[in-house]
Amino acid sequence: MIAFLPRRRCAVLLAAAWIAAGPAAAEPLTFQQALSIVERSAPENLAQIAQLDAARAAVIPADALPDPKLSLGVDNLPLEGPDRYRLDRDFMTMRRIGLMQEIPNGDKRQARRQLAEAGVVRSEAEQVAMSLETRRQTAVAWLEVFHLERSLQVLSELDREVARLRGLVQAQIAGGGARSGDLLLADRDALALEERRDELERDRQQARAGLRRWLGDAADAPLAGEPPRFALDSQRLHQHLLDHPELQTASARIGEAQAELAEALAEKKPDWGVEVAYSNRDSRFGDMLSLQFSFDLPLFTGTRQGPRIDARQKGLAQREAEQEALQRAHRAELESGLASLDQLSRALERSERSLVPLARQRADLELAAYRAGTGELPAVIEARRELIEARLRQIELAKKRDQLAASLHYAYSENRP
Predict the structure, then answer these.
(1) Which positions are tagged coiled coil (predicted)?
(2) Which among 82, 130, 245, 246 counts the fewest CB atoms within 10 Å?
(3) Model-level pTM?
């Protein structure tokens, strides 16, 4: 089992490298290319574009008059006597054709157009919000894969150290400077490293699946390039908080509620209509022309229009309260995110400046002491584990910082003018 370990590790590394390489024709996937792909192909974005087109098309007929009505009929047809059911015997019998047009009051038509235009504004805000959300999710997923692959690279770099340490242990045992049990400790440490690699490989495959959620088959391409560094101006972000797409959507919903209220108020004003009819009689009698006007009579507003107006007013109050709640939530999210970003940046700086160099220095010192015969192998293994954890934690901090910066950028900065 112990002698077989290096060969097994080599096979695992070759298989992992072959899987990671993927098809030879695959184009590398940079951060910006991932965003471009999701922008033009994400089903969520396509759905929002279709919704926006539908909302714009609905504006044109919003305030149009209803279709006119054509009426055909017979007036004064005899039902009894010798002339019953005859159209040409009684002078009062007429064949009539008419055209009727209903005309809603001007306030109602204006409110309907305002409602349709508010729907366009809402759809535009929702389309921008969805576009930013898909980019944010794609950025987070790309960064997840990128940093996990960096972690796997770190473990791959340590394989050479594992081989050197095992060779050193064998030499120490041969020279009488170490016990034979040290070789078991070295092999057990190598197995622990293999288990850690398997965990990271599992996480990498899951991260690829998360990226595939947004990019489809393009997510299988090898990553290329470095992640961007987002410059976030805290003061400017606070000043333009209300420009957030979700808040713009909430504002558009208030506009829709106001238009619905205006339409309900317009119900108290009567609509009217006009009808022109031409009546044809027997040739012995003259034809006739009729003109008729009709008016709605909103006499019972307390039980009909009144409750509808009250419902629209309550709906408007609901939308305004929802906007205020959403604004508070986004302000808290922004402030919390900026605080976390500052903490992560400082922790990453400490890791790069002190923690990793110190862990590396200790690992080198313990290894030198063991080589000189004055140190113990458990101390070497412990120091190397601390170095591995320090380097992996540094990558984890960088991942969290980059993902949080991307989330804040696409939520509160990307939509700025």
Answers:
(1) 183-210
(2) 82
(3) 0.79
